[in-house]
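Researcher: Before we compare anything, I want clean individual predictions. No alignment, no superposition, just each chain on its own. First chain goes here; please echo the sequence and then give the structure tokens.
Model: Echoing the first chain and its structure:
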Amino acid sequence: MRAQFVLSEIGVGLRRNLTMTFAVIISVALSLALFGGSLLMRDQVSTMKGYWYDKVNVSIFLCNKGDAEALPKCAKGAVTAEQKKTIEADLEKMDAVETVTYESADEAYKHYKEQFGDSPLASSLTPDQMQESFRVKLDDPEKYKVVATAFAGRDGVQSVQDQRGILENLFELLNGMNVAALFVMGLMLVIALMLIVNTVRVSAFSRRRETGIMRLVGASGFYIQMPFIMEAAFAGLIGGVVACVMLLLGRYFLIDHGLALSEKLELINFIGWDAVLSVLPLVLVIALLMPALAAFFALRKYLKV
């Protein structure tokens, strides 16, 4: 009987404040969709870092004849065969180095033509203008400075470049977007909490007669509060379900179909459905607890039970 009464009161409350309840659902849905999206973005960046950092190399570019005339680092002339042997031997001795691959000027010219053959500059380049290099695979990409310190400034070495630096700007951009999404999510959560508190206040005020009667007949404070708390929790749960649907549709249309980014950006290792599904329970729990707790603390002040 008590359960039936509580459920009936929930239905009455939702119907009386339909507009505000709808606003709560939308704000909770948007804020939690942004929250889930931020978590997925963080996982995506971590996945990309793990994937690409494992593949990038440290490149040691060697001086050629053109560099000897233009760059102070190569003032002693183009790299000699003896210097190349010494550099390669020292690289192979280093514990941080996993593999060393030598790329000749002819090979560098061939790779350049394959990648940038349509560029106007490609037709004016010759193999002797390309730089020889050693491509160094590290067992830990974080140990780049060990190689850079050991070989930067050596005779015959024009520069030492970490390919990871090329990716840092991309990851910084993605992290910046994630921070912006978290900021908007926080703003939306504040708005949702304000709406929940106001909805509870209006609902409590509109039913002050019923709650007064319940006090007179000896109903406990928790029993009087329960319908209001469950109204807020129910509205939040609907918002959480909507947020989950938005996340699933976003993954489906952005990556698999619609924009089909997985087909257009084959070099990016996108997160799978398992990552998306793992976020949904957390979204639902927050959607249920956040409005319920907000309503509970609001009732302590406004319902005076």
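Researcher: Okay. Second chain, same rules.
Model: Second chain and its structure:
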Amino acid sequence: MRPVLTRSRPETCLSDLRLDRLVAGELDAAAGREARVHLEGCARCAARLTEIKAGRAAFLADPPPLPAARPAAEVRRFARWAPRVAVVLAAAAAFAFWFRARPAGDDPGDATRIKGRPRVGFYVKHGDAVTPGAAGEIVYPGDALQFTYTMQRDAAYFALISVDGARKASVYYPTAPRAVRITRGNDVPLEQSTVLDAVLGAETTYALFCADSIELEPLRVAFEAAPESPPIPAGCEVDRVSFVKRQAP
């Protein structure tokens, strides 16, 4: 079991997520100025920023190898049951260096749950920066999302179905016609990440934890027919995460 992490800096300090975004140039002008002013007067945050930059530099100097992307022909073979699925990459290893628990106080509603209902989370890779995702996260076409799950039961059958800004449903996981078996774990990364397509707007991804290996194409069709309140099959628990896809600046 992963220990619960607490802040080593006061609540008034900048979170690791904000420092990550500062380094990646993802803060707007006002937020960037505010962060830099804070750093000028806070030795703790300045030291943490140095650590983050050093870790990023070490990772980029010697990144883990990425497995090859799926051939286009293989992706097309799944088109009959997932017509709008984004390009899938077997690239979970690229995220492993960056996985860390969200510091307490960043967003208690999205912190990892150790007990209770199964949950889904995600990380976002934008350029060279990888950050934990949160509810309402701003993402861009071409970003890679690495989904994770937390589940305390012994086993379940799992699938991810996403409804995008055009109200179209896609099966994000698995690349198979039925839900796949998973076992208990905490913040377990899926073995593949998902590269976002060019459809803009709010998108919601539903994680299904089911007692049986349900067929996914009929479920995808049902989600697309009722995107505001998609039907959840009997015997399944559901968790969801939402993000907003915008045109890259």
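Researcher: What stands out in the second chain?
Model: The two ends are 40 Å apart (CA to CA). Additionally, Residues 1-7, 63-114 have pLDDT under 50 and may be disordered.
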